[in-house]
Amino acid sequence: MNISNKIVVQNILEACLNHSIQHVVFSPGSRNAPFALTFDAHPEITTHVIHDERAAGFFALGISQTIQKPVVLCCTSGSALLNYFPAISEAFYREIPLVVISADRPKRLINKGHGQTIMQTDVYGQHVKKSLAIEDNDIDDFKNETNTTFSIASLVPMGPVHLNVHLEEPLYGSEHINLNRQKKQQLISEEVHNSISTEVLESFNDKKILVLCGQGNINPRLKAALVGFNKNANVVVLNENTSGVNDSSFINCIDRILNSIDTKIEKRFTPEIIITVGGAIVSKRIKAFFIKNKPKKHFAIKHSHIGTDLFLRLDQHLKLDASLFFEALNNTATLLNSKNYKGIWKQLDTQIKDRIPSFFQDKGMHTDLDIFHALYEVLPENCSLHLGNSSVVRYMQLFDPIPNVKYECNRGTSGIDGSTSTAVGCAIANPKKQHVFICGDVSFIYDSNALWIRPFPKNLKMIVIDNKGGGIFKIIEGAKSSKQLEKYFEAKHQTNAEEVAHGFGFKAYESSKKMSYQEQIIEFFNDKESQLLVLKTDATANPKRLDKFFKHLKNA
User: Fold this and answer.
1) Most exposed among 306, 384, 456, 508, judged by the fewest C-beta atoms under 10 Å?
2) Which long-range contacts (CB under 8 A, 24 or more apart) does 136-141 make?
């Protein structure tokens, strides 16, 4: 096998093989040519060439979150690796393993006026689990440390790592070599414990308990444990559809129910103990509600270095596997549940659900809310649904999670910068599954270089909600009443999403105003050629319709 004749590059390839790396996302350049020669030559590694490093970073993130294994990103020197930063920060907060390999000029040439040089070492700061700088000739000292760095990416909590490799010229030399494989190095984190003290378990005895489930991967074991725990009368589980543990027995639409809780009776809905599991919480209302109505205790259960203090009163961060924690609670014989705390939540939730159908009897409404209602009715079963940030992910939380649908969204940092690229990566990594991506027009245009990726997955359908601006700012308090709304926040524009797609060679489904949103979505899914559907909405009517919806649920 002919690969680069640079020993440091050969060592990194060995580390990739020792850690079962399957995918390398490569962005073209000159300084990283030794890695291109090497990764391209090895039959066990699939390479993806993506020109735009920002799109490449999120593409790799999409692959990694799908296969649950590290993915390598490889770029040239200079500003190239800075374009990975949005995806790296997302991976850090989502605990997704990425290995960034950035090529660099020799240290002696940094800040000496040579082209494509910046201070690359430790450039990601605290947003990676480990940074390692390697000189071209320091091969023996860094071989073990390179393997350790790869291992750290997969160590719970998983996350991104960075190898910055200073390479001397010439860059294109190669030689025939047989690589030696090693067993993957095993690391054990001293910070992770799976034992739970009797004192902690007994502290939940006969208390009003609320479990709040944030973003996570599909986890049947955790879901089963939560369903069992939720059978206690003193327990209620509030869930977001990005949690991966969706169940009909939970309260699944948080904003919908909080909207209907009268301020006079808020204390009735306040638990004595809140347990948070998983990652990011979309709902701003739930954070505000429990900052105002503070529980007596807040436990964060998460295999993470960060115990998220959502309500500004975190009592204990338990670095435990959440499945084991709730299984232990379920097996605690002394856990009494004489309080019917769940009943007040379930009764209100049922009343609200019964009011929904009457609201959507109005036909011919061209608003964001009506698109999500239509999508909820006709979304293909067993698909992966990728949600853009801002208003899209919030609208989807107003409808109960659809069984057998996997909900995905970049909620680590909640940016709009890589939603399309992430969906493309997921679809590439799981080609047998139907993937559906829905986002706003600004998000779609912002990440339009995702459409440059080739081959583009045929199993991905994209729906763009076009209201010619950032619709979220007409919903959130403060921005919607600002004189600067249209120019600075909503940032209205005249760019056409279909024309952007056409420029990259995509066929867009030609929608018709004579058809309902539901009819258009059904025809779009049946159209085997079209991968993009653009649905126009009324920017002025959108916030009024949403406000009317909340009032209807509360007062009907």
Assistant:
1) 306
2) 136/6, 136/8, 136/106, 136/165, 136/166, 136/167, 136/168, 137/8, 137/168, 138/8, 139/7, 139/8, 139/11
